Structure to design on (453 residues):
């Protein structure tokens, strides 16, 4: 029995588990291409981003409250990622988390199960060391959300 | 041997120039019928973002490792992989990859275990090819199936097991190619990389520390023979007839050093201990040393 996921995330898990093994990497590649660029205000202030040092390639992320919203457990959080084009696997993981978590209420992000990375059916294709990079991203996102709540 | 060896002055300095080709040579020969170019990367998606035209991909994790044992594919598995990639026993295989050919050297080393007669590295790897603005292709490569014979893997020449390293201890040189903090025991993984699940940090007693990347120049090519000799012969003290074992964390970085010692400097007896620190650092009743000194073998270890 595994914990339920928010609908937008569940959909992604379904997408990945539905495609045959040989097409999963292609799907991950499509995700890596669709990772949105940083908004210029963040791109110009890299110090506001946190590096996920557990990733095998440079990856930076930032978590913010939804613009102009009153902070609270039901307030949506926005996620921002930056990773170089030469690191497609890392970009792909970031893009999955962006599409799956961006705009969710803070409390829902905190309730995402920690075994999320294993649910995409990628562990056969991607080495354990890399999969841990995705776990580390999720852990840091959650920690940033907690810090936002405590601020 | 397959196609003619590249006649390149830059490679003449090395002990086995026939094991290297330049990016220019690859650009000229990638369509030769007797040549198959293989890309092998750390990043499992990099090939898909664009590769040398016609190159096939071989992934260390899904193609070369077995899923059911911590070991490499067997003779039948390798023959099937080669046949699928359009490689025959007489094909000239040219391997290249990301990160100064680190994973490419690992793939080449596995080819060596099966005694593939002609396998070469593209000096400078993927980075140099891209830096030179050479063509990248995202076309799906569907090789015509070849018929590769089943050749049993022979680990005796190029691969060391833990028991070989134990027998080697205190008798012959060991090279630890990990970063210095991994060697001293401060870390059990590379800087900025996740933990690989090793219980203890440190190194194998008597091992000399020579991080693998010291053998690579800024543009990802190998350093000159003179520079390499200054490191391995003068600094570490390796003698021409030494029996040498190199190791790292899982055997990939040490494949790069294995290639340098064996084919660029011409040491005859070099083996790669692929169990490396993830095996040694977790093993019961094997000695380790902490700190920057090579250390000594405790009396009870042998």
């Amino acid at each position: 029995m595994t914990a339920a996921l928010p609908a937008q995330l569940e959909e992604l898990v379904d997408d990945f588990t539905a495609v045959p093994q040989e097409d999963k990497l292609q799907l991950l590649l499509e995700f890596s291409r669709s990772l949105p660029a940083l908004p210029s205000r963040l791109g110009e202030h890299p110090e506001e981003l946190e590096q996920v040092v557990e990733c095998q390639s440079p990856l930076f992320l930032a978590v913010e409250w939804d613009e102009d919203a009153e902070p609270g457990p039901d307030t949506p959080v926005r996620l921002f990622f930056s990773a170089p084009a030469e690191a497609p696997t890392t970009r792909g993981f970031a893009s999955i988390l962006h599409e799956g978590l961006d705009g969710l209420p803070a409390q829902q992000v905190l309730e995402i199960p920690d075994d999320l990375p294993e649910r995409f059916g990628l562990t056969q294709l991607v080495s354990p060391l890399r999969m841990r990079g995705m776990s580390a991203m999720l852990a840091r996102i959650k920690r940033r959300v907690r810090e936002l709540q405590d601020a | 041997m397959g196609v003619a060896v590249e006649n390149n002055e830059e490679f003449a300095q090395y002990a086995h120039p026939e094991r290297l080709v330049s990016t220019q040579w690859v650009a000229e020969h990638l369509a030769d019928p007797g040549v198959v170019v293989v890309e092998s990367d750390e990043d499992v998606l990099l090939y898909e973002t664009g590769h040398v035209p016609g190159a096939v991909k071989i992934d260390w994790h899904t193609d070369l490792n077995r899923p059911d044992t911590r070991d490499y594919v067997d003779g039948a598995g390798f023959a099937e992989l080669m046949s699928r990639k359009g490689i025959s026993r007489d094909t000239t295989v040219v391997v290249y990859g990301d990160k100064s050919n680190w994973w490419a050297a690992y793939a080449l080393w596995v080819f060596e275990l099966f005694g593939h007669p002609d396998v070469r590295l593209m000096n400078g790897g993927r980075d140099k090819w891209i830096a030179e603005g050479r063509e990248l292709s995202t076309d799906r490569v569907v090789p015509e199936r070849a018929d590769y014979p089943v050749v049993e893997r022979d680990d005796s020449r190029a691969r060391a097991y833990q028991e070989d390293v134990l027998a080697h201890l205190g008798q012959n040189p060991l090279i630890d190619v990990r970063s210095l903090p991994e060697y001293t025991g401060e870390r059990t993984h590379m800087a900025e990389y996740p933990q690989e699940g090793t219980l203890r940090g440190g190194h194998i007693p008597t091992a000399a520390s020579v991080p693998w990347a010291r053998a690579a120049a800024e543009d990802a090519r190998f350093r000159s023979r003179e520079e390499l000799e200054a490191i391995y012969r003068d600094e570490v003290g390796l003698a021409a007839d030494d029996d040498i074992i190199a190791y790292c964390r899982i055997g990939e970085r040490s494949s790069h050093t294995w290639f340098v010692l064996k084919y660029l400097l011409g040491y005859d007896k070099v083996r790669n201990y692929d169990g490396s620190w993830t095996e040694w650092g977790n093993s019961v009743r094997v000695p380790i040393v902490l700190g920057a000194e090579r250390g000594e073998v405790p009396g009870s270890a042998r």
Chain A touches chain B through 26 residues (CB under 8 Å). Chain A has a mean pLDDT of 89. Chain A is about 50% helix and 10% strand. The longest helix of chain A spans residues 128-150.
